[in-house]
């Protein structure tokens, strides 16, 4: 298989897992290799969370991560088998332990697009692979001790830089909740609550010292959805786990702002950026393009918002949230993929005057910078398939909530196109339609402590492996779309 060159794009949700086996206090401090893995006791055995109370048998018993069961490694295998995709043991995740003592000074604003602690907690929970737990432990230390405290204080990488300059659009914290659910670490939950309090104070003092009023333009969403979406995600998780009134209020107020946001276009079922923010998707032709009818949105930020709204729907049952997720799924299904290359660009949209779909990469990007080993093909242009992967759950949510198997099948097509793409090429692929290139989150970035492919794929794809979404073979790509 070709090696993928990861791209940080600078999503997500706290999920699920039920474990089996009997927890035995003290097995991590008894001098015995209880699980026969060649490692004895804390901290030599990565399955031990501490010396006093944890079990040497992995995964630990009776601990859940999130409010429902996330599809595990066997579910992923079963899904590929149902779909007729072949795979080998080498495609499955098997991360080595990470030798670094700690995660220190990650570039929060420019270098993260996922909650790394959440990704590793859930990856461990669904696979039992100690390499994931090893990294989760290091990220847990960072988030408990350094993140909110802006360590190191002199760095432009820290939380304070993101908070003071970008309205916390790279806010994390649901990984701390997941770590608490897995390990019982109350310090992690308390730190997640402290981060939640920062968000609560931010929003409760936005409009003349009060909450913004629903029904207008939701602050911070006119140019970027990821900040308020990530803040809603954390609020939903804290409301669920703690049951505390301020987090329930934060979740419900942010949800109301999203549902009544004037940047939402009900005709197309999508949130679009404001006129002044068109530079992000259209370059120099920004406000002129808007005046000519163009509306657009960041592709992976759609995925980020969908994850947050799904957490709200899951814990509240709000029908307006369900309907919004279904509308977003249909818009993505109809407009995200280029009819020429069958991939999503980093931005896409629609001309509301003509109805034509617009995809930024389809406009042409000159000579592609193809990775080594990728044969040059006629008509190839620069592309990054990771954006296609970021929309898998968005389409799958719609399929699940609308009981629409066509959308479920389309979500699988997005996974097929995204996870087998080659960075820099619209045409090269690392595996065929009936082959698995790699299991999700089986690849590490070059730094060794983050996942490749936009800081992890599971945050955008987990639902598709749920046995309830078994489905049928995916249909052919849609026809009749035009590119403006």
Question: Which terms summarize this structure?
Answer:
mainly alpha, disordered C terminus, two-stranded antiparallel ribbon, 484 residues, single chain, disordered N terminus, Glycosyltransferase, three-stranded antiparallel sheet, 5 strands
Q: Would you give an account of this structure?
A:
This protein is mostly helical. The chain has a single domain (63-469), classed as Glycosyltransferase (Alpha/alpha barrel), CATH 1.50.10. It has helices at residues 73-83, 108-111, 116-127, 130-147, 159-166, 174-183, 186-204, 226-242, 245-259, 279-282, 286-291, 299-316, 319-335, 386-389, 392-401, 405-419, 452-455, 458-461; strands at residues 264-265, 270-271, 294-298, 347-351, 357-359. The protein has a three-stranded antiparallel beta sheet. It is globular. The two termini are 35 Å apart. Residues 1-24, 57-62 and 472-484 have low confidence and may be disordered.
């Amino acid at each position: 298989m070709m090696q993928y060159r990861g791209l940080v794009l600078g999503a997500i949700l706290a999920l699920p897992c039920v474990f089996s086996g009997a927890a035995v206090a003290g097995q991590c401090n008894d001098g015995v290799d209880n699980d026969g893995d060649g490692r004895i006791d804390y901290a030599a055995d990565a399955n031990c969370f501490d010396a006093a109370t944890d079990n040497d048998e992995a995964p630990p018993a009776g601990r859940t991560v999130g409010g429902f069961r996330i599809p595990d490694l066997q579910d992923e295998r079963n899904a590929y088998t149902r779909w007729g995709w072949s795979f080998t043991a080498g495609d499955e995740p098997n991360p080595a332990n990470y030798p670094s003592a700690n995660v220190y000074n990650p570039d929060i604003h420019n270098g993260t697009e996922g909650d790394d602690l959440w990704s590793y907690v859930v990856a461990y929970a669904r696979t039992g692979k100690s390499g994931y737990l090893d990294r989760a432990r290091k990220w847990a230390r960072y988030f408990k001790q350094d993140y909110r405290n802006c360590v190191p204080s002199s760095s432009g990488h820290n939380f304070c830089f993101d908070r003071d300059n970008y309205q916390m659009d790279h806010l994390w914290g649901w990984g701390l909740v997941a770590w608490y659910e897995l390990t019982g670490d109350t310090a992690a939950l308390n730190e997640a609550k402290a981060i939640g309090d920062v968000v609560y104070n931010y929003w409760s003092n936005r409009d003349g010292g009060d909450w913004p009023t629903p029904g207008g333009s939701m602050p911070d969403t006119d140019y970027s959805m990821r900040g308020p979406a990530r803040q809603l995600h954390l609020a939903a998780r804290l409301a669920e786990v703690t049951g505390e009134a301020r987090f329930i209020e934060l979740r419900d107020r942010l949800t109301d702002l999203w549902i009544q946001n004037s940047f939402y276009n009900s005709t197309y079922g999508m949130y679009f950026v404001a006129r002044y923010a068109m530079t992000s998707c259209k370059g120099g032709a920004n406000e002129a393009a808007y005046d000519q009818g163009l509306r657009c949105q960041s592709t992976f930020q759609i995925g980020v918002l969908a994850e947050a709204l799904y957490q709200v729907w899951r814990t509240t049952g709000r029908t307006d949230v369900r309907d919004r997720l279904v509308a977003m799924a249909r818009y993505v299904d109809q407009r995200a993929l280029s009819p020429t290359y069958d991939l999503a660009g980093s931005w896409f949209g629609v001309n509301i005057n003509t109805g034509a779909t617009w995809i930024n990469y389809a406009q042409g990007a000159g000579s592609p910078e193809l990775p080594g080993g990728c044969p040059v093909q006629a008509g190839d242009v620069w592309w990054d398939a990771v954006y296609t992967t970021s929309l898998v759950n968005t389409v799958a949510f719609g399929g699940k909530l609308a009981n629409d198997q066509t959308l479920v099948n389309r979500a699988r097509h997005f996974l097929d196109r995204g996870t087998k793409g080659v960075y820099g090429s619209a045409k090269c692929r690392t595996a065929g339609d009936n082959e698995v290139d790699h299991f999700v989150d089986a690849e590490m970035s070059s730094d060794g402590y983050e996942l490749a492919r936009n800081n992890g794929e599971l945050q955008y794809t987990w639902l598709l492996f749920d046995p309830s979404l078994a489905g049928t073979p995916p249909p052919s790509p849609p026809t009749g779309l035009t590119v403006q």
